[in-house]
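task queued by scheduler; priority normal; single chain, no ligands, no partner chains; default sampling; output format set to structure tokens
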Amino acid sequence: MINFRKKLNLFLLIIIFFYSCGFEPIYNLKDSNFIINKIETNEENVSKLIKNNIKNYISTNKNKKKFDIKINLVKNRIIKSKNTKGETLVFSLSIDGNILVYENNIEIKNKKINKFFDYQNDSNKFNLSEYEKNIENNLISKITNEFIIELIKISND
């Protein structure tokens, strides 16, 4: 019975400690002083994924700066090197293009995007496909985070 009480007390102490640690999300929507009015994309999947990532900032709040966004990104898979037999050894996955930011129909920012990642070929095509999806998601997440930081900088000017 004493052992159970010690475990329970330790558990409660840990919960209280983590509850009061002051954690707040970095990209808190209520603290941002901008909203996204409209998002346009090209037909590429990467552009649509970034649009989905920043959808939370779409609002009709009238007291914040309103931005219109145009996302024009393209994903490319490039062969970087081959062996003497002509088999691919290294691929590169890149996401290129630009993201335009408009305020009152005036372009205020043209963010050029050029992110890439080199990786080894895998004989198991399923594993290679899953790895490529993981790389793509990581690149998209990085682009989204950098873009949100850029919007925060623009809105604070």
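post-processing summary
- The CA atoms of residues 36 and 153 lie 14 Å apart.
- The chain has three helices and four strands.
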